[in-house]
Specification:
This protein is of the alpha/beta class. It contains 13 helices and 15 strands. Strands 1, 2, 5, 6, 7, 8, 9, 10, 11, 14 and 15 form an eleven-stranded mixed beta sheet that branches. GO terms for molecular function: 3-oxoacyl-[acyl-carrier-protein] synthase activity.
Amino acid sequence: MAVRDKAGRPVVVVTGMGVVTSLGAGKTENWSKLVAGRSGIRAITRFPTDGLKTRIAGTVDFVAAEPFSAPELSERLAELAADEAVVQAGIGAPGQFPGPLFVAVPPVEIEWPQRLELAAAAGANGNATYDDMLRAAATGRFRAHHARFQFASVADNLAARFGTRGLPISLSTACASGASAIQLGVEAIRRGEVDAALCVASDGSVNTESLVRFSLLSALTTANDPPEEAAKPFSKNRDGFVMAEGAGALVLESYEHAKARGATILGVVEGCGELADSFHRTRTSPDGKPIIGCMRQAIADAGLAVEDIDYINAHGTSTPENDKMECLGVTAVLGERAAQVPISSNKSMVGHTLSAAGAVEAVFTLLTLAHQRIPPTINHQIPDPAIPLDVVPNVARDAKVTHALSNSFGFGGQNVTLVMGLEPA
């Protein structure tokens, strides 16, 4: 394999992967359940759901964290995924990762239970000012709690745990965040600034407030029973996405660096495309230009033609709007091949892991390449005639896959597409 790509840049390879979802912890458990068409979506038991329109989610209940503390759960999920990736890569001495850290995390704020507790500690007979709250947050047991609710706290703690180099980068680009973290790592290696990068994305945001907010946007499904049948990407009867938790991590290296240390190459990140439209806070532009441009950029960045693409890991949220627009984009980009190229949605099984989705699905795309087996889109019982795509309905499929797209389209028109491929013989 060439050390440089067609544009003369270092080739970026993957040497370690880690993943945690509602299906379980680690690549082995996730992959076996994914290709079996299993769902990790279940009734929420972590907090009361009385009065909520949506009472299901892809929660990660096997990881302990303080109730309603998204930063704490996000950090623990990130640690699990990153640890699996770093161990598989076998890179550096323990606690001395030889490169920077890029972390995608959800927007961080104090949830209502902690706000009320802090307000009570601030006193002022229920009329606490912002200054009163700051003073209370800096004292006693609230000091550690306040530190947890800093946007960069997850990245800072991960950097200390894994000994990454330089200041860690935290980012949040809505549902494209995980793919953005990978793109930053790819670009740093391509510029020759680093030989390796640890790219992590995590989200533990399933709580009452998040459910209410997404529900007010009419984005969530209300098909609560049975939970495992709620996510129906590309189906005519789809009615919204299912919130979920999870984390994904990749160890990226230049091909030259990986080969020099005898690392096993798991795949190649061949291209990245990024495009935003700022059309609407939740909807994408009706002409599909941002989605179309994003995929075309990624394919061109990889030095490939559309005829080279064998599979698409869809954003596939199961909302009426997103699935329709993704179909429009895929059809415009692939042309006559659109109906022949398989496209499936992992979210039908794990739900929408929000900030983590781009990294979680990048791991699944690499596993698809490694196993030459495409996970299905489950719950596809009523096809949508307006979406004439091969969505790999309900049952996994063996297929020859050399180059694959992984789409991540976020609220606010933030879009990233990754192209991943196998190491050429």
